[in-house]
Amino acid sequence: MGKLAVYKYFAFMFLVITLLVSAFTIFGLFGGNTDPAKNTAMAMLVYVLPLLIIANALLCIYWIIRRRWHWLLIPVITLLCCIPYIGTLYQPGLFVSADESKSGLKIASYNVAMFGREINGFKAEDILAEMKRQKVDVLCLQEYMERSGDKSNSKSYREYFTYMAKGRDDMVIFSRFPIKKTETIDFGVTNNSGMWADVNVNGKLIRVFNAHLETTGFNRTLYKAAKMEMRGSHVEENAIIKAIYGNYTLGMIVRAGQANLMAQIIHTTEIPVIVCGDFNDVPYSYTYNTMKGDLVDAFKECGRGFMYTYRGAKKARIDYIFHDESLVGERFYTQELSYSDHNPVYLRIAL
């Protein structure tokens, strides 16, 4: 009788865990529709969705082993609801063609991390050479640095990209097509900003947006803690966790405000738009959903494989290209380059 009671207890606990994991997963899928300033906890669930999906998969295995088919339906239905989210991270790319013999527009977005602040300009030149090899027509750069030592990077880039639009501080758009108009989008007291440029592509105006949204502050907090330890100051682990959480939630709220400002301009533009940049946020987040609106996520449209753009220990997809529904993407891809802590992303659009 004792063994039966223990058996029933563990069965009941697994059922409770299954229901809780399913509920948190569903809430997480809707967390990206919640402004972090209004409900931080709900918005934060988006960031643990990958772990919740893994938990649902493990619970599927458990209920299969137990042969409890009616309880198995709970994690199965939950995983089916996650398919659109999974599609922002992985695409089979069955019908994606690599043929670039036909005419098209190639656009790239790359956070170049100030070219490593080098003084000889080798990184800037290597990146330019790679953009030439990829036959990029429009290039959006974040964390751009105008000079490497006594060398002007813009001068080098304009030998290939004839036209250039400069935003605030570290933002720039290079183009092989004429730029007719440009404007900076100021986010206020922050190092981040946005911009747009109207590019004349064979007689058709396309507004290209370049955005660099607020960072998470995660690495900065760890760096400060490590520096204090090196100086002999003891930093308690819970203090680091509190600082990381505080910076993360603050960054999330600030990004949401920046995304709202960008979206107001993006979604009221009357000509076709392409939105590029380092959003410093994951798919399905409030930032992602707000910036995307009714635009097309190029990776979901014509990408292939598992997608991440941040090269750090916590690999994540935080760099994006969205485009107007009137444009047709043919191929979206990234490259593993070592010049920055980000990888560049590319989109070829049919003309």
Indicate the topology.
Elements lengths: L1 H30 L8 H5 L4 H18 L2 H13 L1 H4 L3 E2 L12 E8 L10 H12 L4 E5 L4 E2 L2 E2 H5 L5 E4 L5 E4 L3 E8 L6 E9 L2 E9 L5 H13 L6 H30 L6 E6 L7 H7 L3 E2 H5 L2 E2 L12 E5 L5 E6 L10 E6 L1
Parallel strand pairs: 2-3, 10-11
Antiparallel strand pairs: 1-13, 2-16, 3-7, 4-5, 6-7, 8-9, 9-10, 11-14, 12-14, 15-16
Strand elements, count: 16
**Largest sheet at a glance?**
6 strands, mixed
State the oligomer: single chain
Rg from alpha-carbon coordinates: 23 Å
Q: By helix and strand content, what is the structural category? A: alpha+beta
Order of helices and strands: HHHHHEEHEEEHEEEEEHHEHEHEEEE
Instruction: Estimate percent helicity.
Output: 40-55%
Overall pLDDT: 88
Give, in spatial order, the strands making up the sheet with the most strands: 6-7-3-2-16-15
Q: What is the rounded distance between the termini?
A: 74 Å
- Outline the low-pLDDT stretches: 221-237, 239-244
Total number of helical segments?
11
3D shape:
elongated
Our estimate of the beta-strand percent is 15-25%
Explain what the structure shows:
The structure is a single chain. With 351 residues, this protein is of the alpha+beta class. 40% of the residues lie in helices and 23% in strands. It is built from eleven helices and 16 strands. Strands 6-7-3-2-16-15 form a six-stranded mixed sheet. It has a six-stranded mixed sheet with strand order 8-9-10-11-14-12. A two-stranded antiparallel sheet has the order 1-13. Helix 6 links the parallel strand 2 and strand 3. Helix 3 packs antiparallel against helix 4. The longest helix has 30 residues. It is elongated. About 7% of the residues have low confidence.
